[in-house]
Task: structure prediction
Amino acid sequence: MSELLSQDESACARCELSLTRTQVVIGRGSVDAEVMFIGEAPGRNEDLQGRGFTGAAGQRFDRILEILGLERDGIWLCNAVRCRPSIAGKRNRPPKPLEIAACRHWLKSDLDRVRPRLIVTLGRVAFESVTGMEWRAERRSTLYEAQEFKIPVFALYHPAYLIYRRDLVGTYHQDLEALRAAMRSLRISVGNMSHGDAAFN
Ligand code: URA
Result:
């Protein structure tokens, strides 16, 4: 079942991003999903289209799903911050702590409704918002328990990071292999996609 969860969220005014957004980019996918992926915040394309992970980051996110044998309709995908942070509407910028804190209400609401068996965080902002722990690269690729939610968390680098850090592509594939193993250990089904077919380019 593909379903949008909350009408109220589309009218959110919990922080000042509501003044500059085109629309709130709310979570999407299946409310029965076993796996929830959490990104950082919408960029320009997402703000215009109203859908998370379109554009260059979206292409990389879809490669991740291929490698894991998952589809967007079978997972839940949302962002830690639901409105686009920008510099005067032109360049994307990282969300500020107050914006992340304000939007945590919606992250919790998604987690309460979907109750996934595994959370996969994409990058620092999502990891810190879900776990309350400080992000460090060594914290990737391992299962944590999100204390507040009692749900296992697996941290990945944000896929957009690979656009600048081509040297990390091999590491990313290893992390995805570790994620496949973590999913199997939680008895979540993984597909058989080979890295050759689904490599990042
Ligand atoms: N990056 C994110 O973290 N989320 C999006 O929706 C798009 C790019």
In short: The chain has a mean pLDDT of 92.
